Amino acid sequence: MSNYRRLYIRGGTYFFTVVTYRRQPLFIDDARVELLRHAFREVKAKRPFDVVAAVILPNHLHCLWNLPEGDADFSTRWQMIKTNAIRWANHRMC
């Protein structure tokens, strides 16, 4: 695993690029993108943040976020988004 150095600034604006596992094209149709959107909405309700911009491509996404004043915890938010997206995808497949 890489040894990334991350800068945590409370209330900061962050740019992210998130790549799917093994660059699998997971976001290839509207239904799958909607699962991701649902995961974002669910996390934003619990841990608020603003999505300034987002681009969703088949095997990765780019996001620009503003975090609330006094909060720099983007890592937990990403973990929650990924967990919720997988949970919703598994739920729809059943």
Describe what this molecule looks like in 3D.
With 94 residues, this protein is α+β, with helices and mostly antiparallel strands. Strands 1-3-2 form a three-stranded antiparallel sheet, with no helix packed on it. α1 (30-46) packs across α2. The longest helix has 20 residues, at 74-93. The mean pLDDT is 92. It has one domain: Alpha-Beta Plaits (2-Layer Sandwich), CATH 3.30.70.1290. Helices cover 39% and strands 23% of the residues.
**Unreliable sequence segments:** none
| Main sheet summary | 3 strands, antiparallel
The total count of helices amounts to 2
Determine the CATH topology: Alpha-Beta Plaits
CATH structural architecture: 2-Layer Sandwich
Provide a concise account of the structure shown.
The protein has 94 residues and is α+β, with helices and mostly antiparallel strands. Helix content is 39%, strand content 23%. It has a single domain (13-93), classed as Alpha-Beta Plaits (2-Layer Sandwich).
